[in-house]
Amino acid sequence: MLIRQLIEFRHRFHPLHKLRQSRFVARRILPLFDQPIFINMHGVSWKVRVRRMRHMTYVVDNRAMEPGTVAIFRTVQDLHKPKVFWDIGANVGFYSWLLMSADRDLEAVLFEPDPDNIELVNATIARARLEKVTLVSKAASTQAGTARFVMDPESGTTSHLETGGTGVKGAVVTVETTTLDDELAHLSAPGLIKIDVEGAEDMVLAGAARLLETVKPVIIIECFDGLESVPMRQLAAAGYEFADGDDPRDPAGTTSNYLCLPPGVNFTLDDVRARFVSEYDRWVAGR
């Protein structure tokens, strides 16, 4: 019961939302308390480096964060059994750590350009002595080079490429860019990809044409503009079919998170729907 209340609370009101609306508090006060710490996360077998205030939801109880999407990841991992996971927009690495904890043979490749998140991910890798992890400290985009990158100073979750982002304001830094097709030339091909890049999804997919055609990974993507958006049309053109990435029993057109299955994948959307509820219940119950 408590965890369900936490989930409802998170959707209604972030505990720091009103404080962050004050520019003085957000820029002067919160940073004093926003120190990096190691915490336990439910579903992860090792301690994870986060910032005390910026990643408050993880600190309080990460079961309250995207429980439906977590259930989708756990369901797909069980059905598909990917050997390699590419985490595009990894943030502090939660989904990589979650999947690797469930399958110690899984190889994870994390793409993360935010300098602060890079430092946190590297700290987690070092402390846990993780070997099957590659951190690509670049933004996935349409071409290799450099780009302006807006850093979210409040939650760290909405940092984005300036040319493809959500409009969140913050410090601007220059980061290196790469394409998924370029990385495919020297990294293990992914069976599962997560894309969470705050508005730059079309740029990521434009640089992944060869990967979509030849590898055909399962994709879980955040996209706020619906099935008629450019990134979803890119995936549809590659033969993908879609389900709601928060609850696959709902129509896919009502969500911002999508489960995308390529042609020829070894399971169906009906298989996902049949397992989703039990995975969701297990997660929120702490199992």
Describe this structure in words.
The chain is an alpha/beta fold. It has one domain: Rossmann fold (3-Layer(aba) Sandwich). It is 39% helix and 20% strand. The chain contains twelve helices and 13 strands. The strands form three sheets. Strands 5-4-3-10-11-13-12 form a seven-stranded mixed beta sheet, covered by helices on one side. The radius of gyration is 18 Å and the shape is globular. The model is unreliable at 1-14 (pLDDT under 50).
Strand order of the largest sheet: 5-4-3-10-11-13-12
The average pLDDT is 88
Helix amount, in percent?
A: 25-40%
Poorly predicted runs of 5 or more residues: 1-14
Report the biggest beta sheet as strand number plus sense, adding barrel if it closes.
7 strands, mixed
Topology order in helix (H) and strand (E) letters: HHHEEHHEHEHEEEEEHEHHEHEEH
> CATH-wise, what's the superfamily?
Vaccinia Virus protein VP39
The span between the termini is 14 Å
